[in-house]
Amino acid sequence: MSLLGRSGVVYYVDASYFIFRAYHSMPPDMVDGDGNATHALYGFARFLSDLLEEVRPERIGIAFDQSLKSETSFRNGIYPAYKANRDAPPADLERQFSLCREFCRLMGLAEYASAHYEADDIIGTLAARSRAAGLRNVLVTRDKDLSQLIRQGDIFWDYSGNMRYQYEDIGERFGTTPELIADFLALTGDAVDNIPGVPGVGRKTATELFAVFGSLDDLYANLERVPMMKLRGAMGIAAKLRLHKEAAYFARQLTGIVCDIPLAATLDDLKLQPPQVSALDEFFDTHGFGSILRRQARRIAQIGI
Fold this sequence. Notes:
Structural class: alpha/beta
CATH superfamily of the largest domain: 5'-nuclease
CATH architecture of the largest domain: 3-Layer(aba) Sandwich
Strand order of the largest sheet: 3-2-1-4-5-6
Shape: elongated
Number of strands: 6
Largest sheet: 6 strands, mixed
Radius of gyration: 21 Å
């Protein structure tokens, strides 16, 4: 059964992470009858089927990044270099992303994507709605950015690493409390997303700063206190913060997850529907998959999750 029990819990899956992981870990010679790569699709389908069997969720939402390129993201409109450090996705990966979405629909799962917003923003918006309805959230991901969404009663589940972090654990794992993660990244920058921060302010320094100050605004409103902190090079850090204030606030526009995007979805939409077993059999035949996924789909249908 689930981590928290089925009732009152919503699971949100960061699909992109698990698809990329499958793409780079599964044998790349897995192909369908036409020679098209299927390894990312198969790996993602196995992960998702295992998850469903393990937790048997009442409600679950799967969030995808619609485009593997950054050009359509509103963040790219703010900062054209956003994620520009990433290589262009291979054509076979883009194709498999689309098939992963189809697999979700056939499994009876609510799946979402947006041309303007990222999967993080989709999860942020849905998580805010479920929390407002008195439900707890389990975020299935390894992406540190999503830790900013965790609140009391929620869980950040690094499924592939078999690690589960509650609200109280986030500070030790990521350097500060969930509410301050976006501010924290605005100072340290985020090399993964090509977001510059304040030069010379790393994780250790940011952790010490936010142990004292309650937000980026609080830090800059009380910058004169930084030189008096028991912080190595405190005077120089204060000078760097002052010099790069504009850069820090600019980065903050990129690091924060949007939790109120226009998304046509209700909590009822997140209720798991029965898998379409016959259609799944055709899907598996088309992509050259054997019996393992078929058996899982039938078990999931039989237990009525």
